[in-house]
Amino acid sequence: MTVTTEVVLAAEGLTKHFPVRKRGRELLSRTNHVVHAVDDVDLVLRRGWVTALVGESGSGKSTVARLLAQLYPRTSGDIRLHGESAAVSTARGGRRFREYSRKVQMIFQDPFASLNPVHTVRYHLTRALRIHGRAGKGKQELHSALAELLGRVQLTPAESYLDKYPHELSGGQRQRVAIARALAADPEALLADEPVSMLDVSIRLGVLNLLRNLKERLNLAILYITHDIASARYFADDTLVMYAGRMVEGGDSETVTQHPAHPYTRLLVDSAPDPDRITGSAQGLVQEEGVGEPPSLITPPDGCRFHPRCPFVMDKCRTALPPRFDVGDTETHWAACWLFEEAKA
Ligand SMILES: Nc1ncnc2c1ncn2[C@@H]1O[C@H](COP(=O)(O)OP(=O)(O)OP(=O)(O)O)[C@@H](O)[C@H]1O
């Protein structure tokens, strides 16, 4: 399948190294250690398209989202919104940053933490509409804009929710308010960092269905970050798999989740007991399987970062970083694994 929808946001060679603070004797050493949180990541987000980013805890998923939202400066690489490079120096609070963050909005894992407990739904949404110049003129226009936002996230009638405080809402309703606040900016891309993992199992599906509905109606480009590869199959068009700061596999979700190529993705899929569930989490399961732990990101392994845990490890894997190889089963399926070197030839 060839994907033709327009690219909204693209990252190329995206890299983030966090400095490690020196302690004790290290203060005398000249070496400055860094956490290789994200290394050389390429991805595109397309209009009307959900891209899942899957991986264990600590693999760098949230850092990718924060880099794309420009909440962190990047160490290197490029981010382009509609082809235009978002300068590393874009000053937060400046006009260019405001314009960028209007178009690229983020939804966080914990809606309780992202909403201010002392303010009502009306306050949160009005503030967001005002910041983005979408509050209209006068009370009536503002009220219509608020009602429209709550309607979009299926919190109706608006009057039942506008004057509620976050603690008066359920977890799912709070996440819907957080989504409505993001929509107040009229964004083109939504970066959803584990948007359902803190919600009760019974309401996760409803929130994912809402996001899918918004993707279709508003033609949004969505990045869906999750531990749960089974939910990526259900919800995302494309799936990217990340391991220890690097992308290891990508392609259409059905193929990546049903016919995983990279040994790490196979492990993730095998760790998810029921492929049709969207409720669980692969986090921790891999460790339970007894195949080791993710490596230190301060001194990541040479070659393929998965090689110390890989059941198919070859000599080359220990020294040479595998590039993306076409897997050969679909047009878009690739794996950064030497096992697929032949498939490319
Ligand atoms: N501000 C920071 N300073 C130093 N190290 C950081 C910082 N933020 C993240 N890291 C490190 O970068 C690595 C990637 O973290 P990140 O939160 O992006 O992973 P993740 O896949 O989103 O994990 P989780 O699912 O647990 O949120 C981790 O080793 C983490 O400890």
From TrEMBL:
The record ties this protein, via SMART domains, to: AAA
**MF terms (GO), sorted A to Z:** ATP binding; ATP hydrolysis activity
Q: Which NCBIfam families does this one have? A: oligo_HPY (TIGR01727)
Q: Which organism is it from?
A: Rhizocola hellebori
Annotated GO biological processes are: peptide transport; transmembrane transport
The UniProt record lists the ABC transporter domain at: 22-269
Keywords annotated in UniProt: ATP-binding, Nucleotide-binding, Transport
Name of the protein: Dipeptide/oligopeptide/nickel ABC transporter ATP-binding protein
Pfam families recorded for this chain? ABC_tran, oligo_HPY
